Amino acid sequence: MGGDAPFYLKNKLVSSEKNLDSTRKNKKTERVGVTQLIYQMKLIDEDKFEWDSNIPDDVAYYPVLVLEDIRLTVPGISYILNSWYKPLLKKELPYQMCNPIIVMSINTLITYGYLFKQHGFHKIFDQYLSKVTNNITDEINWELNPLADFNVYMQENYRVPKSERIRRFKESMKCFGLEASKRR
Fold it and tell me: HEC string of the chain?
């Protein structure tokens, strides 16, 4: 990435304007990451969300960006993305309760999926945001800690029981058509 890092990140995680894949022809600007989240939130706000048109008007948004490329889940990535997100929010959804974007790796989503199912995203996200933000109000006045990292928060605050790790391991082996070896 080098000196092109800010452009690369913006192009990959905010608004894709340049074709980074030489095998694709005629790349058009498209919503990705941050702009896609704002677009979906705007659809919800306007009661045009395809998957659920009966969402109440008075909601708080918890945008989540799940990254499959772990090279992008580096310290500070949440702060950088939220610094690009916040001005767009103020323009597009100025009077809505929009929380900071929670950035997590696909590994975190899979590893702690059982906890999200058990406790709900809302509860875990609220606990995390209470530790990494200042000034949460009813609008977009929050300040995010520059080193906020949801993946690290989950690792430091939730231990995955051995039984859950074994269950996931067996599931993975089954997905690959392999049989988990028995311990001796």
Answer: CHHHHHHHHHHHHCEECCCCCCCCCCCCCEECHHHHHHHHHHHHHCCCCCCCCCCCCCCEECCEEEECCHHHCCCCHHHHHHHHHHHHHHHHCCCCEECCCEEEEHHHHHHCHHHHHHHCHHHHHHHHHHHHEECCCCCCCCEECCCCCHHHHHHHHCCCCHHHHHHHHHHHHHHCCCCCCCCC
